[in-house]
């Protein structure tokens, strides 16, 4: 029986038993399908950071609507001095209310800047979620690739074991030298070592996926194949690089920076403080009103440094937007080309695999019949192993290409839009 087919049946049987007998544990240890895993990862630290950034911007926007607080002051005059002010008979006590009045549209500028800050944070959040979905897809694919490499290694160990048994039989019959058996044993030991390495790589890949998804219990396997879902070319519309989430986020950052420049310019306008109070005149046993207006003199501090810093920040945001547009255009062209190349590579790898399978089958028949040396059988099996790796590498490259194209399109690798 073919080794890969037998192993798949065993995996399916094991999964069914685990789902029936240990359903809770299995779900805790097995990564769900990618779309479900992405939804569950909403509680991961990476997503929590993005949500916190949006909440921070919303808090700042709320604070921007606040008006300056008034003050109340109480003070006394003309007491505890020299005669005739030695006592409290001539004391003048004033209770005063001071109300600051913002001029120059400061509050409206702050509110506009706060709204722009929220929009920028939300745009960054959407782009960050899309980047997280892209990274999670690559981690999921890497774990699946690592799992399949174990399958390839197990196939090669199984085939090398069968070849060793044939070599032993031929040596026992006197048709092969003892050296051929040692060569087959050496090959088998090498493949077993590669199998252990593949298992270690799978553990590392699953640990990486678990950490990225925010899972407290490390995954021990995958419940779905992301590589198989990408075997067919998805239907996608034209890609507009200028509408990618990265460009939108950079544009929102530029708008927010421009609003902050306006805030700093308006901050240079002096504010009035209106004053009204009640004064108690002890000597005359009378009460009188007091009123006034104060205006700061902007002689030394004209907010020039903050204005210059805000302008520099705005220039940087403009430059980042221009760079994001150029990068998006280049990435779009590259992504479309890479997807086409990956599909062609995968098709060519499948043809190579078919040829390598037939070559190994014929080499095995010839060796068992004593018509070819062991070296040819080992070379054919090595070629088959290489072909299997080529197929897997092509599938991994296709996943990376599709993930990059999906990211530029604003959707996950499985087609869900990012909110």
From TrEMBL:
Residues 143-208 form a coiled coil. Keywords: Coiled coil, Signal. The keyword Signal applies. Belongs to the outer membrane factor (OMF) (TC 1.B.17) family. InterPro entries: MdtP/NodT-like, OMP_efflux, TAT_signal. PANTHER family: BLR4935 PROTEIN, OUTER MEMBRANE CATION EFFLUX PROTEIN. Residues 1-28 form the signal peptide. Pfam families: OEP. This is TolC family protein. The keyword Signal applies. It comes from Sphingomonas corticis.
């Amino acid at each position: 029986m073919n080794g890969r087919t037998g192993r798949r049946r065993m995996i399916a049987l094991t999964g069914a038993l685990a789902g029936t007998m240990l359903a809770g544990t299995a779900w805790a240890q097995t990564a769900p399908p990618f779309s479900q895993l992405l939804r569950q990862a909403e509680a991961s630290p990476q997503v929590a950071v993005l949500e916190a950034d949006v909440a921070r911007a919303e808090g700042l926007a709320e604070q921007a609507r606040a008006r300056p607080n008034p003050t109340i002051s109480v003070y006394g005059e003309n007491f505890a001095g020299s005669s005739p002010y030695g006592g409290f008979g001539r004391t003048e006590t004033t209770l005063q209310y001071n109300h600051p009045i913002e001029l120059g549209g400061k509050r409206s500028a702050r509110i506009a800047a706060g709204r722009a800050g929220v929009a920028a944070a939300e745009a960054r959040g959407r782009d960050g979620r899309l980047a997280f979905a892209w990274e999670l897809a690559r981690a999921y694919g890497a774990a699946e690739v690592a799992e399949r490499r174990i399958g390839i290694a197990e196939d090669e160990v199984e085939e090398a074991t069968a070849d060793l048994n044939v070599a032993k039989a031929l040596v026992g019959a006197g048709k092969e030298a003892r050296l051929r058996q040692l060569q087959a044993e050496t090959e088998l030991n090498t493949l077993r070592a590669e199998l252990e390495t593949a298992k270690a790589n799978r553990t590392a890949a699953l640990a990486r996926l678990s950490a990225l998804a925010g899972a407290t219990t490390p995954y021990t396997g995958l419940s779905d194949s992301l590589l198989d879902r990408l075997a067919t070319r998805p239907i996608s519309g034209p890609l507009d690089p200028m509408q990618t989430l990265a460009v939108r986020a950079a544009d929102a950052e530029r708008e927010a920076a421009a609003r902050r420049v306006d805030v700093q310019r308006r901050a240079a306008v002096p504010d009035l403080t209106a004053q009204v109070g009640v004064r108690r005149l002890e000597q005359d046993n009378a009460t009188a009103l007091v009123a006034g207006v104060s205006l700061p003199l902007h002689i030394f501090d004209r907010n020039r440094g903050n204005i210059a810093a805000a302008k520099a920040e705005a220039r940087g945001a403009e430059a980042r937007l221009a760079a994001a547009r150029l990068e998006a255009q280049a990435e779009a062209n590259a992504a479309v080309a890479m997807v086409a190349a990956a599909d062609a590579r995968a098709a060519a790898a499948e043809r190579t695999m078919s040829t390598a399978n037939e070559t190994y089958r014929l080499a095995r028949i010839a060796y068992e019949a004593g018509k070819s040396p062991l070296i040819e059988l080992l070379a054919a099996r090595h070629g088959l192993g290489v072909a299997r790796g080529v197929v897997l590498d092509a599938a991994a490259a296709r996943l990376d290409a599709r993930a990059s194209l999906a990211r530029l399109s604003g959707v996950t690798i499985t087609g869900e839009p990012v909110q």
